[in-house]
Amino acid sequence: MRHCSLILAGWACPGFAAGSAVILVVGDSLSAEYGIARGAGWVALLQKRLELERRGARVINASISGDTTAGGRSRLGALLIQHKPTHVIIELGGNDALRGLPIASTRDNLLAMTKAAQGAGAQVLLVGMQVPPNYGKAYTDAFAGVFVEVSQSAQAALVPFLLKGVADSPKADELFQADRIHPREAAHPLMLDNVWPALLRLLPKRTGGT
Q1: Fewer Cβ atoms within 10 A, N terminus or C terminus of the chain?
Q2: pTM reported for the whole predicted model
Q3: Which domain holds residue 117?
Q4: Which positions ≥6 away from 165 have C-beta within 8 Å?
Q5: Domain tally for the chain?
Q6: pLDDT tens across 154-207, in order?
Q7: Residue 42, in any domain of the structure
Q8: CATH number for 111
Q9: Beta bridge partners of 86
Q10: Is residue 88 part of a domain?
Q11: Is the Cα dihedral 201, 204, 207, 210 positive or negative?
């Protein structure tokens, strides 16, 4: 089994054969291992699961804590050129809501990122986020709907809610850090389980070897 090491912003697996799937994750602190041990986040766990499943794929984690959809949009072009991904996972939007940014801007940025990735030949998986009920039903519904709208408009795959089974768990207090925003290590396997089925449908069939 091959093991990857974290180099700069990416998981580098030089032993993977040419033509293997390259999965670029562009996200915020939920994907950047904020407040937890290095290698314990859902993106790192994704690489490990891909190895165990012999999927012949490597993961590049280009997530930055605090990033917004505007920040991701500004970074994406260079990342596409540098890494030439076959798949792009976009996990952004939560910080837009926290900062009270216009939903229309979030929608435009996500759509632009999705189309840019598709234009570079990558399949896109949008990872949705939801905001707490105290934001008001109208805003909560509109924000959640952004990810659905972009997914449908660009015909991209969608994970409706990254924190399903975490934020809405009866044991949510045990799954979040003290700030009530960032999940603890124990929540990240659940987050990966939310992403995995949708991503698996986009990946090539497993390869042989050890």
Answers
A1: C
A2: 0.90
A3: 5-200
A4: 190, 193, 194
A5: 1
A6: 999 999 999 999 999 999 999 999 999 999 999 999 999 999 999 999 998 765
A7: yes
A8: 3.40.50.1110
A9: none
A10: yes
A11: negative
CA distance linking residue 23 with residue 55, whole number of Å = 12
34 CB-contact burial (10 Å; exposed 0-12 / middle 13-18 / buried 19+): middle
Q: Report how far residue 71's alpha carbon sits from residue 167's, in angstroms, rounded to the nearest whole number.
A: 25
Q: Count of alpha carbons within 13 Å of 146, Cβ hemisphere only?
A: 29
Q: Decide if 195 is inside a domain.
A: yes
Residues forming the active site: 29, 179, 182
Has residue 14 been placed in a domain? Answer: yes
Reading the chain (210 residues) residue by residue, the pLDDT tens digits are: 333 433 334 434 444 444 589 999 999 999 999 999 999 999 999 999 999 999 889 999 999 999 999 999 999 999 999 999 999 999 999 999 999 999 999 999 999 999 999 999 999 999 999 998 888 999 999 999 999 999 999 999 999 999 999 999 999 999 999 999 999 999 999 999 999 999 999 998 765 544
**pLDDT of res. 208:** 53
The encoded tokens of residue 197 equal 């089925």
Tokens 């939801």 correspond to: 130
C-alpha 133/C-alpha 89 separation (Å) is: 26
Among 181, 166, 92, 76, CA closest to 128: 92
